[in-house]
Amino acid sequence: MNQNIRNIAIIAHVDHGKTTLVDKLLKEGGVYRANQQVEERAMDSMDLEKEKGITIKAKNTSVHWKDKTINIVDTPGHADFGGEVERALRMVDGVLLVIDAYDGPQAQTRFVLRKALAHGLKVVIVINKIDRDNAEPAKMYDKVLELLMELNATEEQFDAPVVYGSGRDGYMMMHLGEEKKDMSPLFQTILDHIPPPFAKPNEPFHMLVSNIDWSDYVGRIAVGKILGGSASIGETVFVVRHSDGKRVRAKITKVFEFTGLGTTETQTAVAGNIVGLSGFEDIDIGDTLTADEAGHALPFTQIDPPTLEMQFCVNDGPLVGQEGKLVTSRQLRERLMRELKTNVSINIEDTDKAGIFNVKARGAMQVAVLVETMRREGFELLVSRPTVIEQLVDGARHEPFETVWIEVPDECVGAIMQNLANRKGLLTNMEKLPHTTMIEATITTRGLIGMEIDVVNATSGRGVLSHLFKEYGPYAGEVLTRLSGTLIATEAGITTPYALVMVQERGKLFVSPGEAVYEGMIVGENPRNEDISVNAVREKKLTNFRSQGDGVATGLTPATKLSLERAIEYVAIDELVEVTPKSLRLRKRILNQGERQKAAKKAK
């Protein structure tokens, strides 16, 4: 055992302050100079993480306190990124469970804590944000203990130490009411209660690859905790592949240790430390590195299986190639295969149709993040609505079910209950909170697709929805998810205010004046459950008595612009989202109206 190292992961529900807490630990751990300007949530390094305010990829850092090295892994709190959490927990010996002193344990808290307890990890409870109005830290601590009992924690895990404080304001304390000084109580609790890493320094080098990093200079970097021996530059090691058990000889070219927000090169890495190693042409998460040619492969935790699948297709629309540079089937396939190397929780399959790929994932959010990343890299593609992955159990159809928690203002409860009933949701619990009501229900994953949009609309943006995979159960029958139809463009061209004023009488607009549209593109929503063909590019006939701009834009409502995630959940089975670096367009799979009608007849 290496007494000078502690390896911990930080786990929490989305927005409970975990990344901000890491910022303060980094500051007190001497990572920053006294006068250094530091951006908030420094660990959220991806642009998408900064914009969405969530953690998407698990990341490593380390701080030094009292001559000890504390390696910290910041994990996502969203269930869609469960694969990232699974991998992070393989590298650590304990977790900081961060709980909001007002909200208490939430859906994702339960998800990440269950994983941590299953790995046998020690827990330190951090009741955060005690400075919030109406915060109840003592009551929330009791709720955490109830949750630990519910998740069958061992006696040792149940007796977890607790600290109270505010990550934003930079103080922690062992007991409520103590002096608000600094983060020392948390550092001390980590050293006292999280065990040093179990490792065998005198045995041959052995390491499980838990994450993959990339550097433009050295290529792929294998990240993991050294379980035995040490790793030095120039040493020969063997890669035992997780996929087929083959052994490949390789040489370590660089050794990286995590310090603060970056990495530093070192000559040798010791047992128990979390490090990055380069020198491998082709290495994947789950592979084992060993100095012993006959060394055994280390066990790799199975990731939760995907529950949704959707199609990624080559863009075949009339506007293809005008905004993106990467549009071919080969480029799309190469990019998806590259994603497989670092993202273990998705599966990608070729289909029997050229340019169409099946992508299986844990949730729509996970897919939306992948698509958003690709569009920023210059890709154009089409994405279908997610469909659930069914299973056959004793010859009967089974589909995934989820537990859903919806926190809504009291006056909106009726609308949400009606929505749940339409989607075949089954109410399991209802709790009155100070200003809101918490609704708990069981619902099929199918029924959950697009529900977040309904909750946002019904509560004017005040409702909060979170969900967690529960089990596979018997098929629940037809589920009504989208009650509206669409307004479909019949002509290609540039939209005019004159045409849109008339289109608007039929429903809600998705396009503004001056946008390019084409036949088969969805330009708006019809409140009734039927599709209507409209002309969005018609121009006003000019006469001697009227000027061109006379009265055209009066009464034109601003268009509704859906985010990528909302668009993916909004489209129907016969529709697609066209994604380019600059635009999001909704369209029918079959653009030509006559062809669509023929296909509909055939389907009947």
Main sheet summary? 11 strands, mixed
Mean pLDDT, all residues:
82
* Shape estimate: globular
**What is the gyration radius calculated from CA atoms?**
27 Å
The N- and C-terminal alpha carbons lie at a distance of: 68 Å
User: What is the total tally of β strands?
Assistant: 36
Number of helices: 15
- In percent, how much strand structure appears in the residues? 25-35%
Class per helix and strand makeup? alpha+beta
List low-confidence stretches.
31-57
The proportion of residues forming helix, as a percent range, comes to 10-25%
Could you please describe the fold and organization of this structure?
- By secondary structure, this protein is an alpha+beta fold.
- Helices cover 23% and strands 32% of the residues.
- The strands form six sheets. Strands 19, 20, 21, 22, 23, 29, 31, 33, 34, 35 and 36 form an eleven-stranded mixed beta sheet that branches. Strands 8, 9, 10, 12, 13, 14, 15, 17 and 18 form a nine-stranded antiparallel beta sheet that branches. The protein has a seven-stranded mixed beta sheet with strand order 2-3-1-4-5-6-7, sandwiched between helices.
- Helix 9 crosses helix 14 (564-570).
- It is globular and about 90 Å long.
Which key terms come to mind for this protein?
36 strands; 23% helix; 15 helices; eleven-stranded mixed beta sheet; alpha+beta; 604 residues; nine-stranded antiparallel beta sheet
Explain the layout of strands and helices.
Blueprint: E1 5-12, H1 18-28, H2 47-52, E2 59-65, E3 68-74, H3 82-89, E4 94-100, H4 107-118, E5 122-128, H5 137-150, H6 155-158, E6 162-166, E7 171-173, H7 184-193, E8 206-208, E9 211-215, E10 219-228, E11 231-232, E12 236-240, E13 247-251, E14 254-259, E15 262-266, E16 268-269, E17 274-278, E18 288-290, E19 308-314, H8 329-342, E20 347-350, E21 356-361, H9 364-376, E22 381-384, E23 387-388, E24 391-393, E25 396-409, H10 413-422, E26 426-432, E27 436-444, H11 445-448, H12 451-458, E28 464-474, E29 485-489, E30 493-494, H13 497-504, E31 508-509, E32 516-517, E33 521-526, E34 532-534, H14 564-570, E35 575-579, E36 584-588, H15 593-603
Helix pairs in contact: 9-14
